[in-house]
Amino acid sequence: MRLKFPLMAIVLEIAMIVLFALFVEYEMDQTTPQQVNITTSTDMGKFLELYPLFQDVHVMIFVGFGFLMTFLKKYGFSSVGINLLIAALGLQWGTVVQGILHSQGQKITIGIKNMINADFSTATVLISFGAVLGKTSPTQMLIMTIIEIAVFAGNEYLVGEIFKASDIGASMTIHAFGAYFGLAVAGILYRSALRRGHKNEESTYYSDLFAMIGTLFLWMFWPSFNSAIAEPGDKQSRAIVNTYFSLVACVVTAFAFSSLVERRGKLNMPLFTTKLGIHDTCGVHNLHGLPGVVGGLAGIAAVALGASNTSVAMQAAALCSSIGTAVVGGLITGT
Amino acid sequence: MRLKFPLMAIVLEIAMIVLFALFVEYEMDQTTPQQVNITTSTDMGKFLELYPLFQDVHVMIFVGFGFLMTFLKKYGFSSVGINLLIAALGLQWGTVVQGILHSQGQKITIGIKNMINADFSTATVLISFGAVLGKTSPTQMLIMTIIEIAVFAGNEYLVGEIFKASDIGASMTIHAFGAYFGLAVAGILYRSALRRGHKNEESTYYSDLFAMIGTLFLWMFWPSFNSAIAEPGDKQSRAIVNTYFSLVACVVTAFAFSSLVERRGKLNMPLFTTKLGIHDTCGVHNLHGLPGVVGGLAGIAAVALGASNTSVAMQAAALCSSIGTAVVGGLITGT
Amino acid sequence: MRLKFPLMAIVLEIAMIVLFALFVEYEMDQTTPQQVNITTSTDMGKFLELYPLFQDVHVMIFVGFGFLMTFLKKYGFSSVGINLLIAALGLQWGTVVQGILHSQGQKITIGIKNMINADFSTATVLISFGAVLGKTSPTQMLIMTIIEIAVFAGNEYLVGEIFKASDIGASMTIHAFGAYFGLAVAGILYRSALRRGHKNEESTYYSDLFAMIGTLFLWMFWPSFNSAIAEPGDKQSRAIVNTYFSLVACVVTAFAFSSLVERRGKLNMPLFTTKLGIHDTCGVHNLHGLPGVVGGLAGIAAVALGASNTSVAMQAAALCSSIGTAVVGGLITGT
């Protein structure tokens, strides 16, 4: 029984190495020397240019998501550790699956964009992890990582390549997908004994401070997340500016509504546990699911209005999103 | 009563959105297509080039200042939270006020430099926050943020544009200004009952470690802070090199003097509480006020000496600054 | 007696300032104006291009190494503090010693590469610090910093310039050197009373979480460490890609073997204390010494096999390295 986890982990890692040996190449490997050189010089310039954005996303994945979940007083250490394990496996698997789908029979050439996309695919599992934290074993998490990233890559290929839908900020393919996948798994694992919460579902003063480290790094580097794979130049800097101002507008309104909803008027990090018969440890429904859906709708609205100044539209959308989330969350919590 | 904070926060956020809609444009909006395109291609290259420096400053504002103030055992969580609130509001307000002053009647075009400058304006309030931490309500902090940033932007415009004074490291406009503004507010809020300190003004082992996270991120990214808006090329890299070597020289001398002043010869983070009849929670007088003034004087001295090698001058200045701060701080503490 | 540390620190800092005044110049100082300008424009472009990688390495040195050693419940705060002191002194001394060796009688011109190399020289002392943590005074650490960096710079000059050996990842000159230097010092300081461990050699729940902050920042930014001074373009991005995939492969196998070795099958951060008659507080033998030697051997093997795809070779090497470390560590611990 205690051999199950190490054996599965080693078998999966050997499988990854075999897959890399079969399918993966450097961006540099020259099959047609003269032609490739041109692409190369541009791509290599881009490598170091996008590398700081990649590292921001990387910090979000490992420090951001890792410490976000330390608020549970008994699961702090294991949440950071399992977050690291999931992400490390997911990065390799995401590189392979996404690469196979997008390379159309050719070898996968690894560059900075693949590395950023691999981080994105991992983000999906880490969002879902928030819904099942403390209810799953490391072995179950390995299986969930393999399945969810395969489904995510397929879904993202469908949305982006077949339907040609634009979803740069990935509000649908990453946030909504990750949140509802996690809630589905939590629904399956649901035991009625958890209806009134679990005694370990508590936070302490210091665990909250550790969670703030995660929250802040996720929050600060979100502009990098939303812009890392955008078209260079104009669109990329707009993605940065828009995300930046949406985030700050969100903070002010979130504090306002948190204080309004909270009985004693105190400031609290809003974390409304939904009671839909599904036990959602980290509140991913409110954190990623609803804003993901609202983000999608806001995008449609912004395009419909032909918004010349999307920054303002985004700030307004963020305001609405916060209000919507707070009201829905508040209503659900109230009952 | 408990509606005061949420209502004020929402009203301020709506005001920000209205101000953005009225005054703010993207750096890209083409009024005179052919002319702007040239500026644009250069500016966009600069956007991604300066973006890592912006993110360093951003980490200083949210993680640096946020965790710096967690050393107070009872205010750790709320200091991180209110730091986030102040900065999020301040960023928007700073963008608008600084933009209006510098754009001379035109629309404000948002680029990476505006975002860095908005972070700077926020830094002023966060320095002042150090002097009043634990003595003010969130509502009072919202008011202080609005007033102080308006005064800061006016003062900086006066110093930089009217007096044409060079103050790249911002030792006067940010550090000295922020420190003495905060002390002035603390002086107004001062209650004689606080003369002997407050029982909550204590730190614990873990709260000190959290404060070290803030301290280190502030310390490491200071070269980015001092160079982010410097002229590209020569001057920018000199600002980085000078700040870097000044900082390391400061650490060695600070440890030496801390050990000398401390009774039992132990190493301690120096935090001398001034007793000028003003209760200065975070010791901003010594952290920002004195070094700000000394930094200004050192700058004058360096220019006067026609220093060809300012790096050495800065290391020497840092040494003097530490000695000065320690001696003055020690004398004040001694009485 | 209590004057020993402050006096030594101040004397060392004054010595550094004198050495800088005598030997150091800006990269910009124009001796032959027209010729230098060309170099300058390229070098200055590189300054800002490599600056994000430098900051990643800087975070590894101060947050990474600093918090890595907070797991000891009684030495958390002093380990972060002394880490800061050592690094601040070491950076200045490393700049001077490396500069003198490489500049061949000319003045040392300070650029971004010198700053990165100074961080590297400091890493050596911080690795050694892990072996003697809690057994040395700050004064002893100042002396060790001065001696070890001088020996390191000499050794690195010998390996790189005289023997012309390629060691970009620095598995030998930094990791193996730092580990065995530290163990040698620990061997000298060894007292037989420590044979059964020390009562302060314990960790607590929160100290482990703080140590995870250090571990994660070291782990995430390792690609920057390995690539920062590589040749630009092709080689630099390969160094990033290889380190990245080696690191994720390492995590999965490390978790697997940790769970296998651990009695109750639980996941633990592996830290096998060697029992060679030397008391190795932080397990640097396993963390840096063995992997450093294995990394060297793996490099030789990879070159021998003419590996066209070193990424796979590195993943495989990482797998072997983990297995080797776990098996050797396990055997030693078992006895």
TrEMBL record, chains A, B, C:
A Pfam family annotated for this chain is Ammonium_transp
Reaction catalysis annotation: NH4(+)(in) = NH4(+)(out); methylamine(out) = methylamine(in); CO2(out) = CO2(in)
As given in the record, the signal peptide range reads none
How this chain sits in the membrane, per its record, is: Multi-pass membrane protein
Q: Which GO terms describe its biological process?
A: ammonium homeostasis
Span of domain Ammonium transporter AmtB-like: 15-269, 270-329
Q: Does the keyword Glycoprotein apply?
A: yes
Q: Which GO terms describe its cellular component?
A: plasma membrane
Localization in the cell: Membrane
Domain of life from the UniProt record? Eukaryota
Q: What is its main location?
A: membrane
Transmembrane ranges? 7-24, 53-72, 84-103, 115-134, 141-160, 172-193, 205-222, 242-261
GO molecular function terms listed in the Swiss-Prot or TrEMBL record: ammonium channel activity
Q: Keywords of this protein's UniProt record, alphabetized?
A: Ammonia transport, Glycoprotein, Membrane, Transmembrane, Transmembrane helix, Transport
User: What does the similarity note say?
Assistant: Belongs to the ammonium transporter (TC 2.A.49) family. Rh subfamily.
Instruction: Give the multimer and partner information.
Output: Homodimer. Heterotrimer; a RHCE monomer interacts with a RHAG homodimer. Component of the ankyrin-1 complex in the erythrocyte, composed of ANK1, RHCE, RHAG, SLC4A1, EPB42, GYPA, GYPB and AQP1. Interacts with GYPB (via the N-terminal); this interaction bridges the (RHAG)2(RHCE) heterotrimer with the SLC4A1 Band 3 I dimer complexed with GYPA.
UniProt name for this protein: Ammonium transporter Rh type A
Lineage here is: Eukaryota, Metazoa, Chordata, Craniata, Vertebrata
The gene is RHAG
